[in-house]
Structures are given as structure tokens and as C-alpha cells.
Amino acid sequence: MSEMIDSGSIGHTEGPETKTPERKLGLPTMMGICIGLVIVQGAMISAMQGIAIGGMGFVAAMVSALILAQFNAMSFAELSLMFPNEGTLATYTQKAIGHFPAILSVFAGYVVVAVLALPVEMVLVDAMIDQLLPGLIPDKVVPLVILAVLCITNLIGADVFARVQNLLAFVLVAALILVGLGAITGFAEPHPRLTGATVDWSFTGVFNGSFVGLIALAMWLMVGVEFICPMINAVKQPKKNIPKAMHFSLFMIFLIFLAFVYGASLYMNVDTLLKSPLPYLDYIKDVFGKAGLLMATVMALAATCSTMNTILASIPRMLHGMAVQGQAFPQLKATNRFGAPWVAMVLLAVATSIPYLIVDVDSLIVLVIAATTSWLLAYMVAHIDVIVLRRRYPNMPRPYRTPFYPVPQILGIVAMGYIALHNSPSPQMTTLVYGITGGILLAIGLVTAVWVKFFMKKGLFTPDVDN
Question: How far is the C-alpha of 103 from the C-alpha of 451, rounded, in Å?
Fold first, then answer.
């Protein structure tokens, strides 16, 4: 999968003395980044629960989510190529609506989500290891070792990162395709005669419109491809490959999940799909028998490692780019001889380890739902940025222009708002979710307001006028 050329440097640097020859990332690696970030264990569980709840209606919700995710990709492609700087959303937003929303959207929409979402993946990996090797390895050790190893490989630079990501993405995609095909064909274990309620494949939920209520759940299978944008200066032919990587990856993710959930419906009834703590483990064991546990563990490890690898590569570059712009602590500007933002990377790894070590998985899931609500804020801000910048700088070069502008942006803003209001899986959790989300946004907002007003000495909503 490795398709890279020599030249350039890994991201934004402040002068020739900091540049290091690096090998740029080709389209396959870029798609590996997108797919590896989106397809995680939590998304697999959500997909299986969704198909149990809605059947064909959930497939319609997946199609709707795919369209909305393509709208998100359009806005990020247009913005990232207008301002090819690793600060990404902060860079675009400071030009459109000011530094306060720029900083708030990145920290609330990406940094907090990563710090709270990665520990859940790590806990799930720990549970899988315990299933495979019960009592042989101390609790919580393996995920921390993985985190440390991937942190080191990312510190070495883009070449090593790309090779690791190519391998992880290949293993993950190959395993998911093998599971889907194995389940659909039944070549390893025959399809069982299911008892109890089975997945509803009628079009009732599509025709009566009830699938709309499942779009929020389906959306979690399609978010995150924009994580390629912080690496824009480390990719080959970004004007062509940034949009392609996001758009093609979303179609591939959709097809992979479609085969995955259809295969699950042939082996598992609704009750098992909804109530199993690790439904994909039961699914793969049903499809491949005793060998299924090993395959499920490999798939879970690949999914978590790929997500962790991408986050360690992208978010530190967001923070580095923001520090260069004066939007974050100046220490985050530090890079090593490979051009990697080592301070930001180590800080993110430590911040991820703390909740993993002290909080149980049930509490983390609630926190993730709350944090990912603020992720939707980032998408809404990106759509707003496109609209504002189209009006403010109509003649500015745009290597990529959103088709049918402004329809994708308007529909995207409305849809993200709807999903944010319907993201809680149960009414009982709604108050807790929005309390946590509000608390996160309030805390980040207060710190951001002080930083912009007194340290940057700028207006909260005063956009930068320099290009």
C-alpha cells in the first residue's frame, strides 16, 4: 500500500532549519488513515445494534449518513485546500468568524473527543485480550504498551507512520471483508436456524419515515475522515488526493459496514445483537467457530491501533499548527529532528492514559457520547466557514469547490443540529449527556475566551483579514 515520494517536510515548520526530508503519503495511505480512524470497535457495536433495531430502515439511515458525511468531506476539502496549513479547522475558522470559535471548535470537537474516546477502545482491547488469554497478562498493560509503541513510531516521522498505518489498515479491511463474505456465503459455518425475533428486512421503516430516527446512530459509522486534513503538508498531490481520500474512503466504509451487518443478521437474532457486551465477538465466533476468537482479537487490535495511530499523527499537528498561530501554548510548537510535534504528541498520550487508568468503561461510554456531541459542533462550524468565506473572499483561489454550493452546507448544518439533539440512546441518559457536554463546552469556552482576550489580545469574533 505504501505509495510515497521523497520531498517536503512533515507539516508546517517555521524556517528552513527545521525542515527534514520526508516521504510524502500517497492516496492508499491517506485512505488507510481515513478508514482506520472511522472503523473502530465502538462503530462495529453501533452498526450491529442499529441493524437489530431498524433492519432495512437502518440501511436507509446508513445511506443518509453517507450523504451527510460526503457533505462534511466537501466542506473540509474546500477549506483545507484554501488554507493548506496543519492547523486545519482553527485556521479556517479564524479567517471566517474569529479566534474564539476557532479554538473552541478544535478543542471541543477533536482534542476532548480523542482523550475520551480512545480509552474506550483501549478498554475493549483489554477485554478481548482477557478473553483470548485469560489471566495470563495483567489488566490494562497491553493497551498502554500499544499506546507507547505507536507514540514512538509517530515520533520517528511520516515514513514509519505510513508503513504502520498501511499494515493496520490492510489487516482491518481484509478482516472485515473476510467476516462479511464468510457470513454471507456461510463457507466456514452454515447459517443457523435462528429463533426469536430476527432482523426486519422489510421496507416498512423506509416508507413510513421511521428510519430518520436512526440517522444519528448511523452517523457514528461515518465521522472522522477529515483527520487527513491536518497532514496536508505531508501528503502527495493534496489538491487531488485530499478530496479523493475522503470521498472514496466513505464509500468503502459504507460497503464494508453493509456487508458486515447483513452477515450478522444471518447468524444472530435481535436479542443477541442488542444485549451482547461484545456482539462482534459472538458474531465472528458464530461465523468461524473456534478460530473466530483469534480473528476477532486481531480485528479489534487492528481497529484500535489504526485509530490510535491516526489520532497520534493528526491531533498533535492540529495543536502544533494552533501554537504557531498563537492559539495554544507556545511549547506545543516544538518539533523533533523528524519534524514530529513531540510535545503535543506526548501530552496527548498522557492525557489519554489518565481516563483509561481511572475510569470504568460504562462511565467512559457516557462521556464519549457527550464529547462526540461537541464533535458535531466542528462539522457545523466547518460548513459555516465555507459559507462565510465564499462571501468574504469570492475571488480567492479554491482548488476544490463544493458541488451545488450552498446546498451541502445548509443541509449539513441542519442535519448536524438534528443529530446533536437525538444522539442519546435513551431518554434517561439525555440529561446526563447534555450536562456533561454543556460542562465541557463551558470550561473550554471560558479558558478560550481568556486566552483570546488577554494573551492573544484579539476580539473573540474578529476574523483575521490577512490571507
Answer: 10
